[in-house]
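Lab notebook page, bench 4
Experiment: in silico fold of construct C2
Operator: M.H.
Input chain length: 283 residues
Purpose: comparison with the prior construct
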Amino acid sequence: MVHGGVGKNIRNPKLRAKALGEALEAGFVVLKEGGDAALSAVKAVMVMEDSSVFNAGTGSVPNLSGEAEMDASVATSEGNFGAVASIKNVKNPVRVAYEVSDKTKHLMLAGEGATLFAKNRGFKNYNPLTEEMKSLFEEKKNCGSEEIEELQKLYSNETVGAIAIDVFGNMAAALSTGGIIFHLPGRVSDVPILGGGIYVSNRGATTITGKGEVIVKEMIAKKVDEYLCEHNAEEAAKDIIQEFEIDFGMIVVDQDSKVGIAYNTESMSWGIKTQDYKEVQSE
């Protein structure tokens, strides 16, 4: 499963649908070839990061200094977790998050330390701001708070995520975001917070997109997992989405491969693929 954000007006719906479909295929190839769930989820998110139509990787929004600061995370049902926060100048933050999980004993690296780690691991220097985002920053950098709020509604709730289950029954989830447009430098979203925007256990996997600060305060992904003790993924997603009066959405997969998709905005970009079924929604 994949998602590409929630909101009132989904930007570039056709391009997003195409990117979601490509992400599903890329992630599924990994599973079909016997790869593990974590690599499948990471690969799917990388496709969305590279598409330039989401606020993640290439296409990330600028902060108040005109730079892209990105967050990403990877979690598995085997208890592995890795994240980066406020990382700059890399093409695929989710891949760096996977490296944190796979190559270090740490859970999260942030800021300059995360960027330095990526450089030392061989990641090339890369500016993820597109020409569209550079122009937007120059045009709007001196605008008032009301206009910034409108921009945030349009550009910010676009976290991309993926969930996969491999042939061994292991589950994994991956998330990536450029955060809130014109955010204060150093701001960290819900994406790299285990239990906030992402959570995986032997009960299921959850990824969330929406208002990051509230998602962290309420630890929404962890609450979904607690619901999975007595409910399936569809029931858990449906119940949780009704608890909070914020704009957000989620995808959930439980240990029995049941799926939950829920959002309280007008639309959400998402997709699902199995051996015999594929669906993409981006309107």
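Observations: DSSP finds nine helices and twelve strands in the chain. The longest helix spans residues 13-32.
Next step: discuss at group meeting.
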